[in-house]
Write a structure and sequence with these properties.
Blueprint (H helix, E strand, L loop, with lengths): L1 H7 L8 E5 L12 E10 L3 E6 L2 E2 L10 E2 L17 H8 L22 H4 L6 H4 L9
Antiparallel strand pairs: 1-2, 1-5, 2-3, 3-4
C-alpha cells in the first residue's frame, strides 16, 4: 500500500508550484476551484508548508492533499510569510468577495442615509429584507 502511494504521489521539492483544491463551502459560484501555491519548506520529509503572494497557510499538507504542477509558477521570493487560512486567501483571490454575499441588514424601510447600504448607493435585493417593505429596492 505504501509502495503504491509513493509511486502515485512522488515527492515535491522546495520551490515547486502545487495546486490545492478549495472546498465548495469556502468559495462562491464564480470563484476558482483551485489555488496555486509554492512549496516553502518540507518538514520530516513528508509535511509541506505552502504559500503564495497572498499569504502562507498555517497547517502542513501531506503529499496526497495537493497536485504538483509541471512548471514552477510561483517564485519563492514572491511568497508572503503572513499566516492566513485557506478560506481567507480564497476570498482575497475571488472576484465576488468570497463565499457569501453582501446585503443590507436594516429592520426598517431604508428611507434615510442611516442605512449603510443606501448611503453607499446600493439597492436592496430580495435577500436583504425578505417580505418586509423597503423603499430602496431597484
Amino acid at each position: 500500500m505504501k509502495f503504491r502511494s509513493i509511486h502515485k504521489f512522488p515527492k515535491a521539492n522546495i520551490g515547486d508550484s502545487v495546486r490545492v483544491s478549495l472546498p465548495d463551502v469556502d468559495r462562491g459560484r464564480a470563484d476558482p476551484r483551485n489555488i496555486i501555491f509554492g512549496v516553502v519548506s518540507i518538514e520530516d520529509g513528508q509535511y509541506y508548508k505552502l504559500g503564495n503572494k497572498y499569504g502562507t497557510l498555517p497547517q502542513l499538507y501531506t503529499r496526497n492533499q495537493f497536485d504538483v504542477c509541471p512548471v514552477s509558477l510561483i517564485p519563492l521570493d514572491e511568497v508572503v510569510h503572513v499566516v492566513k487560512l485557506l478560506r481567507e486567501i480564497g476570498s482575497q483571490m475571488s472576484d465576488g468577495g468570497g463565499q457569501g454575499y453582501k446585503r443590507c441588514s436594516c429592520k426598517r424601510k431604508c428611507d434615510t442615509n442611516r442605512c449603510k447600504w443606501k448611503s453607499s448607493s446600493n439597492l436592496c435585493k430580495s435577500k436583504c429584507h425578505g417580505s418586509m417593505p423597503c423603499n430602496n429596492k431597484g
